[in-house]
Amino acid sequence: MTALVIVLALPLAGALAVIALPVRAAVPVALSATALTALSALVLAASVWQGGPVTLMVGGWQPPLGIALQADGLAAALIVMSALVVGAVAMAAWFEMAAARAGPRAAFGFWPLMLLLWGALNAVYVSRDLFNLYVGLELLSLAAVALVAISGTAQALVAALRYMIFALAGSLLYLAGVVLVYAGHGTLDIGLLSARSPAPGDALALGLMTAGLLAKTALFPFHVWLPPAHASAPAPASALLSALVPKASFLILIRLWFEAMPELASTAALLMLAGLGAIAVIWGGVLALVQSRLKLIVAYSTVAQLGYMFLVFPLAGGDGSAQPWAAGAWTGAMFQALSHGLAKAAMFLVAGICIAAVGSDRLGDLRGLARALPMTGFAFALAAITLMGLPPSGGFTAKYLLMTSAFAAGQWPWALVLAGGGLLAAAYLYRPLAALFTRDARLPVHPVARAWQGVPLALAALAVLLGLLSAAPFDLLQIGRPEPAVEGL
Amino acid sequence: MSLALDLALCGLILCVALGAVVGRGVFRSVIFFITYGLLLAIGWARLGAKDVALAEAAIGAGLTGVLLLTAHGRLRRMSVERAPRVGPNPMAATTGIAVALALGWAWFALPAPTAPDLAAALPLTGMGNPVTGVLLHFRAWDTLLESIVLLAALLGVWMLARDVDWHAPLGLRYHARPGGVLASFGRLLPPIGLSFGSYLVWAGADGTGGAFQGGTVLAAVVLVAMMAGVLPPPRVAQGGLRAALVVGPGVFLLSGLLAVALGMGFLTLPPAVAKPATLIIEVALTVSIAVTLAVLVIGPPDDKEPVR
Amino acid sequence: MSLTVFAMTGASLVGLGIYGLLALPQLLRRIISFNLIGSGLFLFLGAAGARGEAVDAVPQALIITGIVVALAASALAVGLVVALARRSGLVVLPDEANPR
Amino acid sequence: MVTDLATYALTGLGLVFFWAGTIGLIRFPDTFSRLHALTKADNLGLGFIALGLAFQADGWATLAMLALIWMLALLAAGTVAQLVARAALSPPEEDEE
Amino acid sequence: MNAALPVLILLSSLVPAGVTFFLAQDSHTLRNTLNLGGAVVKLGLIIWMLFAVAGGASYEASLPLAPGLVMLLRVDALALLFISLSATLWFLTTIYAIAYFGTKAELSRFFGFFSLCVAATTGLALSGSLISFFIFFELLTLSTWPLVAHKQDKPSLSAARVYLAYALPGSAALLWAIIWLESATGPVLFTEPPDLSALDPGALRGIFALFIIGVGVKAALVPLHGWLPADMAAPAPVSALLHAVAVVKAGAFGVVRVIYDVFGASNVAALGVGEPLAILASVTIVWGSVRALQQDEIKKRLAFSTVSQVSYIVLGAALASPLAMIGGLVHLIHQGLMKITMFFCAGIYDERAGVRKITELNGMGARMPWTSVCFSLGAMGMIGLPPLAGFVSKFYLGLGGLEAGAPWVLGVLVASTLLNAAYFLPLLYRLWFLPAAEDARGDERAPALVVPAVVTATAALGVGLLAASPISPLGWATLIVAREYGP
């Protein structure tokens, strides 16, 4: 229980301390806060593993009045993944966002914003109250927009503005849904909502909330803001943005469609969501093929990889949740979320190292960089393996589980999307890989600290390890799932 | 009789809002927006939500209005290219109408109201005003996150400064004539404003008011003082400023953690010590809110006139 | 009955705000439209909250929180608009500068 | 009963002044004369309404509050009128958009 | 049920791989001892396991990943056949590679991926379930890409790209087939073929076709063989390992697994898919030989010869008769030995004499006698002259064809023998009977290059001559067919 409180409170307290303390004390405080919170995240996951979901009534008040927080298996897994990603980003930022390299303003702003983003993420992962999720999402979006605007260039400002507009529109649509739910049911707690009889306005509320959350998750029609935003932010920031931020609003979608209002999930809506996901996979992949800058390729790959997660809706949603394969699909999507988080963060940190080494991330300038920075090249290759969904990576386990459920459910087109998406990912990730591994390096390479290079390598290795030792995370994800996994497929 | 008043009021609100959206000049639409905020405050009063009326007037109309006005002023001085004239956009109109009709239909489809009963739990919080009870006790986690949202927005605004201006004082240089009307106004208003703001915070426990409304009034006073040149605009490097920004959420968070240390739940205030503890938290919150809002409206550190 | 009037006003404010958001390229006006949508939604919630005999306090608290959050978002948005105008002399998003 | 009559009378008078101020705002040719109309007529109108409401007041606190409101309105109106007038002295820019 | 041994065998090449990656470029001795040590340890373990399995012990190790996703390592006779081949040839290729590279650049990376590739091959051979077979199959693709692209110049990178362009869609097809099958029959283990009753014959044919496409890419069946000749840009040890031991044989091994352990010989016959596969294999045999004729580079010609030779194994597997099966399996070993010898010799010619084209081979026999003898032995074995290994497998394939009632197989064998002669004899003629050009140079002062070639040549010869004895690959293959897949 205290682990849950520390996971929620420490990042926020760390951010406040970093703002208040003199500048030179900022980085040590931020790093120690990160380390402590990561530790308590592991402790939380362990307690969820043994004792089942950890619930916390804030202030001691029961849900209709107070706010209930619950860390079930899924939340614990996402918290641990976020802790790993933020820990790695903090170490990379220690090199990249140092005042000497990034300037006093960015050095001052990055650490508190990172910690605020992390606090907001943890708050959203565990919250069971719809309005509390709204405030958490808003804090997340503001911190994310600020992180995009940190680099200060003209296109970063344009990207931040476009991101802001989409985020605000998404929040307001979500708020409209929350307003309708409260007006209809008098309560905002997910647990109580699932127990109550459906009111006529619920379908509209769910529709509005879903539209808002789709805008924030950058699913296909609403994805235009993501690539420029994630490409123009500084590399550690874009690692946070791409790996973690869309997962929060996706998690809320899962809570709504699987726990709060499962009976509203009509097959048409579920198919529409998965259809958009499928288009996102193809669209993101094709656009990533034509980009010439590494960060844009990786950003469009986020658009594509997010599409995979939406395939869970027709396979495990609505009346399908009682089917035996629902657990496999649901866990597969969550594996995709976890492994994509680790691999994508590693890739953006590699992009950051490349920019630090040769000053630009254009593919032409990256030629032959793997000879000078072998660890970075290897990290990128490992991360690419995870994103392509090749064994033995976590991405493969996710793809395998989703494809098996798709076949078992008889909806094989989703399996086609997964297989085709994997090949598309291989295609657009091959170009940077080949550029890194050619021999003729054109630009002089500034030396990059080995420790800095080690960070993305560790993250990418974790993503692959997630695939090898996938039994433990699989069981962790089942704890607290609405319908615990039926054994076997 | 009151229905006619409500109808007139709502009609006025809608016309002013229409003016704000489709009005010809940006300055004109900002002014319409401010009047819209004030009319909406009256609407809230009519609905019996006095706290919300105060918040809408202070924050919705007041501060947002000042924000937009200062922004418009800076844009005008920057000789910015004019935004293209845009005709009516049918797609946008249909979307807007569709959402409005959907909400309208939803209103009539609402089942009987089932509000959670505060009567049982309110006395435990030691609060007379139920809204403050909900804000600082039942949904304390929301309010804590909200005060940190303000801080995040401020950090975001500070990140928009140019690197060269980072050590400069915040916001533009206001040069009020020393003996002028504004300078004297800047000296006369603060005492009244400070007393009224602190009264609002104090009254919030049992009547209308609260940390946010009081904090906003204090922020307005700080703004006027700065614009009148009475108060020099602070710099990011000043520790005092940053401490003031952080004290509100910090005290709130620490009190929550203290409760955990003492074995109670997170952000729990035992009924015995609820009233004084809430007051301490509210005072700290007010200080932070006042400073954060004032500094937020002033803008990022800025050295020279906007040169492009 | 008057609650219905306020609710309808709230709904139409949301519709107006959405029109402004989608139709107006000028960024300051877009921020105004965001605030219109927000306050419209809160008016709707306030009217819904006032339906019972005693005025329900929870929606009021939500609305106050919402207003403050809306202010924070507007402040950041306005800051971004001014910074963009200073950096690139634009008051609209570049791709919407010349309406198609 | 007489208090209600007094309230009606005074608020009616206040409304007349507000009405006059608005007519002045619309009809007068330049900024300075409009400022006169606004500050003079509206403040008087507000004074009468405050006075009218004073009769309905149920305690000294409300009376003090009403006086404070009127006094603050006066202060604000005076300062703003001065500033707008000074701003109007400098050459007017074209009204954009 | 000793679970440690298979894992130990896997680790014996995984550990050297992991460590070698982080070794500095100039720590040659440590790297060489590590890799050679790993090879020796693997050989020892396998020999020890051979005796244990002969004594009736069985080994199984499983690592559950997720429900339905179990990594299973299981030792059966077929697995033993393949890992013994890969272990011995890996040991020899390591020696050859150490000598071949000397102190060239990026060796840590090369040897790291080199042992990773062999680890994948061993895992693939030992895998007891379809999904672990797929995982090692993929790992093999990933670890061979950097080997092919080792020189990092234009041709080798484009060769690597072509390799991936064939391999990844193939693996996607394979994954599709596996999941399509497993969603109906549950996880497929090689211990007992799954009951295919749940699926209708049409679906089963589709699944079989997808399986064949998936493994066929690596087995270089005709339409999917494009990557093999292109990979000749890789350094000699890589092409030797790739085409004699790792990649190509993995494909053939996959075909055998699919036909005998996933579908079962009876189902393959019942579904009537054996016949078209046999025809496809035959087409590949002939097509490979014809294309080999047109090549003027030694390694290109050897590559196309591999394309045709591997299809012998596929042909053997496709004909649902034990004798053909024996022929196919035994050719797995024979072709491995012969082809690696010829690639070693091609590498020596390239390294010591700078000779790549066939026309430059004139009079090489005099200057480089040992290499040329080995090359000739290999070539004659390929052609299938009676005492040598090639003849044994072709003989059994022919018998199998007759037994399976497909006399046209004999025609294919005869035609391919003639074609083999047509594209190998000119080389031998140039080696021994044509006078050398004046400026020709070439010496054999690199024993570490020549000795492995000689060893594999004598092994190829020995396997042919001593075919009758039980411990020979032929004896072994008959044992496998008798025990596992009885008529």
Molecular structure report:
The complex is a heteropentamer of chains A (489), B (308), C (100), D (97) and E (487). Chain A has 489 residues and is mainly alpha-helical. Chain A has helices at 2-20, 23-51, 73-96, 99-126, 130-149, 154-185, 190-195, 202-217, 226-232, 235-243, 245-260, 267-290, 294-309, 312-316, 326-358, 369-372, 374-388, 394-408, 412-437, 450-468, 471-478, and strands at residues 54-57, 68-71. In chain A, helix 3 (73-96) runs antiparallel to helix 4 (99-126) and helix 13 runs antiparallel to helix 15 (326-358). The longest helix of chain A has 33 residues, at 326-358. Chain A starts with a helix and ends in an 11-residue tail after the last helix. Mean pLDDT of chain A is 90; it is low at 484-489. Chain C is mostly helical and 100 residues long. Chain C has 3 helices and no strands. Chain C has helices at 2-23, 27-49, 57-88. Chain C has one domain: Helix Hairpins, CATH 1.10.287.3510. The N and C termini of chain C lie far apart (45 Å). Chain D has 97 residues and is mainly α. In chain D, 85% of the residues lie in helices and 0% in strands. In chain D, helix 1 (2-27) packs antiparallel against helix 2 (31-56) and helix 2 runs antiparallel to helix 3. Chain E is globular, with a radius of gyration of 21 Å. Chain E has a domain at 273-487. Chain E is an all-alpha fold and 487 residues long. Chain E contains 20 helices and 2 strands.
According to DSSP, the number of beta strands of chain A is: 2
**Distance between the ends of chain A:** 34 Å
What portion of the residues of chain E fall into strands of 2 or more residues?
A: under 5%
SSE arrangement of chain E, N to C: HHEEHHHHHHHHHHHHHHHHHH
Shape of chain A: globular
Radius of gyration of chain E, rounded?
21 Å
Mean model confidence by pLDDT of chain A: 90
Number of helices of chain A: 21
Determine the mean pLDDT of chain E: 84
Keywords:
heteropentamer, C: 100 residues, mainly alpha, Helix Hairpins, E: 487 residues, two-stranded antiparallel sheet, 20 helices, 2 strands, globular
Indicate the topology.
The complex is a heteropentamer of chains A (489), B (308), C (100), D (97) and E (487).
Chain A: H1 2-20, H2 23-51, E1 54-57, E2 68-71, H3 73-96, H4 99-126, H5 130-149, H6 154-185, H7 190-195, H8 202-217, H9 226-232, H10 235-243, H11 245-260, H12 267-290, H13 294-309, H14 312-316, H15 326-358, H16 369-372, H17 374-388, H18 394-408, H19 412-437, H20 450-468, H21 471-478
Antiparallel strand pairs in A: 1-2
Chain C: H1 2-23, H2 27-49, H3 57-88
Helix pairs in contact in C: 1-2, 2-3
Chain D: H1 2-27, H2 31-56, H3 60-89
Characterize this entry briefly.
Chain A has 489 residues and is mainly alpha-helical. Helices cover 76% and strands 2% of the residues of chain A.
